User: What shape does this take?
Amino acid sequence: MGTEYTPIFVFLILAIGVGSSMIILSASWLLNPKKTTRVKQMPYESGMDPIGDARQRFDVRFYLVAIVFLLFDVELLFLYPWAVGQWSLDVAVAPTGAFLAGIPALFRDLVFWEIFVFIMILAGAFAYAWRKGVFEWR
Assistant: This one.
């Protein structure tokens, strides 16, 4: 048997090992001691005892902070592919034979200024949210 099949066998051994360990760990609930108490059966909410109605109203500021966090978090994720592509080589060949292409040198300045405008729009949105008091927790 040649060495060209070695990665396949290594992958199969790892897959079988991970799968069997998942089955063993998920079946461990059969072996654990089962001692239920009132404290264990009580609902748990962020380290606080659940007192009062579960349908109480939340302040709208909680939702504003959560939405602003998600907005800026997702927008900043767009910077990772740009950073990888901007500073990579034009065209390179990986050891596996695949082509790794970054942004061609001809377009790097254009793409840089487009990302700069994107970051300025994000900074403007951040300044607007700060000015409106979205980040203040009263």
About this structure: The helical segments are 6-26, 38-41, 60-77, 79-86, 108-132. The two ends are 70 Å apart (CA to CA). The chain has a mean pLDDT of 78. The chain has one domain: 3-132.
